[in-house]
Design goal:
The chain has 232 residues and is mainly alpha-helical. It has a single domain, classed as Rhomboid-like (Rhomboid-like fold), CATH 1.20.1540.10. It has helices at 6-9, 16-46, 50-54, 78-96, 100-121, 132-149, 152-164, 181-197, 218-228, and strands at 57-58, 127-128.
Length: 232
């Protein structure tokens, strides 16, 4: 990933107008993604879930490696997709509202990390599909993004989301029955890694030398404090 490319790791939207525009884009991106997932589900269910059987990720099966990118769009039944849809939209929107291009790179990273962990470490011939790996990846990204970006609002969002949905981590530990905890764990790790790789780079600016003991101008000091808090 070109993490030094400003398109992926630039400062992102800063003015209220830019943030509103990006939030609007994020809404439509997530609406479109969810619509695609449900359209695939309709086709999948009509064919007795042949798509899920043929394109699931199976540990050690080289032929299923390309399916790592397709498996997040597939589900095993209606209850499966219904339980994933709400969290997918909420966490996906929060991950995307600071920049859609960055979000697309993040989604690719999470899909690969979640699928790769399943492919390498799952035991037996377990076939894994579902968007929950993406959900856990977006969750991890949202929780820590503000810390890496040094952005107060995103940090507060991360604290609230982390405190409200910490119970999700109980299905990312070994022994959780009926779910792919490895896929959840792989997605979570991908989201945390993405928060660091796609973090905002704050350019270093040279400041003029001032005599020792000279206090900075009040306006400059306030500006620096607001910038450090992520409010500028």
């Amino acid at each position: 990933m070109g993490t030094s490319d400003a398109r992926w790791a630039g400062p992102g939207p800063t003015s209220p107008e830019e943030m509103i525009a990006e939030a609007r884009k994020a809404f439509f991106v997530m609406f479109t993604l969810l619509a695609v997932v449900w359209l695939v589900q309709l086709a999948n269910a009509a064919d007795h879930y042949a798509l899920s059987r043929h394109h699931a990720v199976v540990s050690g099966d080289v032929g299923t490696l390309p399916d790592i990118l397709l498996a997040p769009l597939l589900h095993w039944n209606w209850a499966h997709i219904e339980s994933n849809s709400g969290p997918l939209f909420v966490f996906g929107f929060l991950a995307a509202y600071r920049g859609v291009l960055r979000f697309l790179a993040l989604t690719l990273l999470i899909a690969v990390s979640s699928g790769a962990v399943v492919w390498f470490f799952e035991k037996g011939d377990v076939a894994t599909v579902g968007a929950s790996g993406l959900i856990f990846g977006y969750f991890g990204y949202v929780v820590v993004r503000g810390l890496f970006d040094r952005h107060l609002i995103d940090t507060l969002i991360g604290i609230v989301m982390g405190a409200s949905f910490a119970y999700l981590l109980t299905v990312a530990v070994p022994g959780t029955p009926g779910v792919s905890w490895l896929g959840h764990l792989g997605g979570l790790l991908g989201g945390l890694l993405g928060a660091w790789l796609l973090r905002t780079r704050h350019p270093r600016t040279d400041t003029p030398r001032v005599p020792t003991g000279t206090p900075p101008p009040p306006r400059a000091a306030l500006h620096k404090e607001l910038d450090d808090l992520g409010l500028l």
